[in-house]
Task: structure prediction
Amino acid sequence: MEINYIAAFVAAVSSFVLGGVWYSPAVFLKPWNRAMGRDENSSQGHPAKVFGLSFAFALIAALAFAHILGPQPDLRVALHTALIVGICFVAASFGINYQFANRPASALLIDGGYHTGQFVLYGLILGLWH
Result:
């Protein structure tokens, strides 16, 4: 099956833009840090490694989603599929892990909301870019 590699790359970049806004101090950074029990100044390792691996994972997800949708998906189908993947696969899977990790519902709503938004952006880009 053909994949629009340029659109998938742009979709992966879009998730970085969304993440930059979503996890910014103006939006969800402070409540996310509280929910995760993190100090606002704590670090997750070397930024180049964190951002590099995060982009690689976003690209893998965008390419896989493009493969699922096919080369010229209908926008409505792409967005519907994005909501199913974001809510029912990703956020629900986070929900399982967060229950066993005893994380609060606020963390699930923030992270699940981000990933649902990520896939909606993927669906929007892949559904429009033929």
